[in-house]
Specification:
The chain has about 120 residues and is an alpha+beta fold. The protein contains 3 helices and 5 strands; from the N terminus they run βααβββαβ.
Length: about 120
């Protein structure tokens, strides 16, 4: 069975596609600023940076959600926090949120961190 949504870390080719989501949530109002912001995070994640941009796309490749996940080292161990999450869909908000949550859970597992509520 084909999954309705695909969640992955954002790539450079998806930055412009995610801009309407960021703009709708007033996270970014300028495309060039958004590009610099995302490119910086993507470049740092190649060097084991502590931030990840995640996207959720439907089966046709349309982006339905974007989030920022931040890994923090604490005395109790690694903690994954999600300070920014934008879901933009009319028909299946719950399905998009569930898929994104599964992707965040998988990232927490890969990084050996717990999720901060």
């Amino acid at each position: 069975m084909e999954r309705a949504y695909h969640v992955a870390e954002m790539t450079a080719s998806e930055i412009d596609l995610a801009f309407p989501l960021a703009a709708a949530a007033d996270i970014a109002t300028d495309l060039d600023q958004w590009r610099r912001y995302c490119e910086g995070i993507i470049a740092r994640q190649q060097l084991d940076g502590d931030e990840r941009l995640m996207i959720c796309a439907n089966a046709r490749g349309y982006l339905k959600a974007v989030c920022l996940a931040r890994l923090t080292q604490t005395q109790e161990g690694a903690v994954l926090d999600v300070p920014m999450q934008v879901v933009a869909t009319v028909l299946d908000e719950e399905g998009v949120r569930e898929a994104l949550q599964e992707g965040i859970n998988a990232l927490a597992h890969r990084t050996g961190s717990s999720l901060r509520s």
